[in-house]
């Protein structure tokens, strides 16, 4: 395992524990840590699998550094578990991989997403996730690698939908946390989860993902989890906002990365470009970046005129078609 903090590497190799996260969990002695430098080409050449849990906003710079160390004639299975949209480019991880490592690497990249808090996984509590890749054989390899009696994997062929699901649900987790922080209860949370899923499906379909993906583990499954638990970092950000704390204070004291805060910027750009109606996501953006009061945002949402409950966008697939062309995939 690679860590960018040398003190964590030293502590892990001495005690087989992470001093920052899951501190009570004892890792097996055959797992070692390396860092703070990225693994060498010689070490990477010995690897069959590389799993990336690097936050999306830092993925591009790390892949750029890593790419020269990859042997294109003996590529490891590349698995990505980050969830987010890059600020500035509003790129999905697939596009970041293509830009830094080439289209052929992106085509084979595999994504794992779903309702899966790390604390419960290491306790071997029953968990299920979605595994998707444009290359079905790579998805099957990842499934075989991870599938255990306590960790069930379901394969799919819509990595764009998997990525969007994992990124979008973090925005709505902030909304659910805000609701609870304001003192609202079960009716409101159920409304946010349901309407959030409708917005996610509409955004994803307009982007070019399959609407069915949002009904799976990476969609509604992960949305329900992150909107319902204080173990979610994004929910925690929202909850503290609802209780009146400033975003600056929250981010300085959170102690870990809440991908939904930065992802909201990318989501806002995508919503505007696609012309999608997503009032909850827009309201979260206004609270985070335009200084809108949380109670004002809630009031304005509830005062919106009546509308159709379920409606997919009239046009779909523009961004996905552009991305598929970049990956060199047939879109005829």
Automatic annotation (TrEMBL):
The active site is at 169 (proton acceptor). This is Glycerol-3-phosphate dehydrogenase [NAD(+)]. It catalyses: sn-glycerol 3-phosphate + NAD(+) = dihydroxyacetone phosphate + NADH + H(+). GO terms for molecular function: glycerol-3-phosphate dehydrogenase (NAD+) activity; NAD binding. Residues 158-298 form the Glycerol-3-phosphate dehydrogenase NAD-dependent C-terminal domain. Belongs to the NAD-dependent glycerol-3-phosphate dehydrogenase family. Signal peptide: none annotated. GO terms for cellular component: cytosol. Substrate binds at residues 83, 233-234. Its EC number is 1.1.1.8. NAD(+) binds at residues 58, 118, 233. Residues 1-137 form the Glycerol-3-phosphate dehydrogenase NAD-dependent N-terminal domain. It is an enzyme of class 1 (oxidoreductase). GO terms for biological process: carbohydrate metabolic process; glycerol-3-phosphate catabolic process. SUPFAM superfamilies: 6-phosphogluconate dehydrogenase C-terminal domain-like, NAD(P)-binding Rossmann-fold domains.
């Amino acid at each position: 395992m690679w860590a960018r903090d040398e003190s964590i590497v030293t502590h892990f190799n001495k005690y087989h524990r992470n001093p920052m996260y899951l501190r009570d969990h004892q890792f097996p002695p055959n797992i070692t840590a390396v860092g703070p430098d990225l693994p060498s080409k010689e070490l990477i050449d010995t690897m069959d699998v590389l799993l990336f849990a690097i936050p999306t906003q830092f993925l591009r710079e790390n892949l750029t550094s890593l790419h020269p160390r990859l042997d294109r004639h003996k590529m490891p299975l590349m698995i990505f578990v980050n969830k987010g949209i890059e600020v500035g480019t509003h790129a999905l991880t697939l596009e970041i991989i293509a830009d830094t490592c080439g289209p052929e690497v992106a085509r084979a990249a595999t994504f794992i997403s779903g309702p899966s808090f790390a604390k419960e996984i290491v306790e071997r509590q029953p968990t299920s996730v979605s595994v998707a890749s444009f290359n079905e054989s790579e998805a099957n390899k990842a499934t075989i690698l991870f599938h255990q009696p306590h960790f069930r994997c379901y394969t799919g062929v819509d990595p764009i939908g998997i990525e969007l699901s994992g990124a979008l649900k973090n925005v709505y987790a902030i909304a659910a946390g805000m609701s609870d922080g304001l003192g609202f209860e079960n009716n409101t949370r159920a409304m946010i989860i349901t309407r959030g899923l409708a917005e996610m499906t509409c955004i994803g379909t307009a982007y070019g993902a399959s609407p069915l993906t949002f009904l799976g583990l990476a969609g509604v499954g992960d949305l329900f989890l992150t909107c319902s638990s204080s173990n979610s970092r994004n929910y925690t950000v929202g909850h503290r906002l609802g209780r009146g704390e400033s975003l600056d204070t929250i981010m300085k004291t959170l102690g870990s990365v809440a991908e939904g805060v930065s992802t909201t910027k990318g989501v806002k750009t995508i919503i505007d470009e696609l012309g999608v109606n997503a009032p909850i996501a827009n309201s979260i953006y206004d609270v985070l970046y335009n200084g809108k009061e949380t109670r004002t945002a809630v009031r304005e949402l509830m005062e919106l005129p009546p509308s159709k409950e379920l409606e997919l966008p009239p046009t779909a697939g523009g961004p996905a078609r552009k991305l598929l062309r970049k990956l060199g995939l047939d879109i005829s």
